[in-house]
């Protein structure tokens, strides 16, 4: 099953998960980058990111190329911002929704303890897809790496064998 992991990461947590998935599934990965790549910290980071979510901004992404037709499974990964997927992931889905039609999709997110309705919101942005799994991690770069990898590997086995729509968790 040829797999692509598409993800955004502002502070490295989703990058860590995406790299593990790349190894576990022999997957290709596509990291989304904002054109505005200024690094905000502290309160400014939350105000900037939270505002983007609130006004439903779809920020400009750095150019990427992806031949979606060659993949059977697409895994989408995003940090949770204000209980939502990141605007960067929304921008990606807006650009590529048509090419994702009919694909198997799995979702992961990283958060700080409050994932909100992030998977429902992501699923609502998709079209006709078979959702084969969802998984979330609490700031994995700050957790015991081995435990994170074990959790991830269990999920990988689950999504590899899954051909049916799963309920959102
Ligand atoms: C603008 C902004 C909003 C956030 N909102 C939430 C939130 O609603 N719930 C939560 O649990 N964590 C929230 N976080 C924390 C991140 O989701 C969390 O640290 C995540 O692991 C970061 O992933 P990354 O390192 O790949 O960027 C927020 C972080 C930022 C920058």
If you had to describe this structure to a student in words, what would you say it looks like?
With 169 residues, the protein is an alpha/beta fold. It has one domain: Rossmann fold (3-Layer(aba) Sandwich). The chain is built from five helices and six strands; from the N terminus they run βαβαββαβαβα. Strands 1, 2, 3, 4, 5 and 6 form a six-stranded mixed sheet that branches. 33% of the residues are buried. The site of flavin mononucleotide has 22 residues, from helix 1, helix 2, strand 3 and strand 5.
Write the layout of secondary structure elements.
Layout: E1 3-8, H1 13-25, E2 28-32, H2 42-54, E3 73-81, E4 84-85, H3 87-100, E5 104-111, H4 118-125, E6 130-138, H5 145-160
Parallel strand pairs: 1-2, 1-3, 3-5, 5-6
Antiparallel strand pairs: 3-4
The structure holds flavin mononucleotide (FMN).
Overall geometric form: globular
Second CATH tier, the architecture: 3-Layer(aba) Sandwich
What profile does the largest beta sheet have? 6 strands, mixed
The fold-level CATH name is Rossmann fold
**What is the terminal-to-terminal distance?**
24 Å
List the quaternary state of the chains. Answer: single chain
The number of distinct structural domains comes to: 1
Number of strands: 6
Bound molecules: flavin mononucleotide
Instruction: Look at the structure and give the CATH class.
Output: Alpha Beta
Name given to the CATH homologous superfamily: Flavodoxin domain
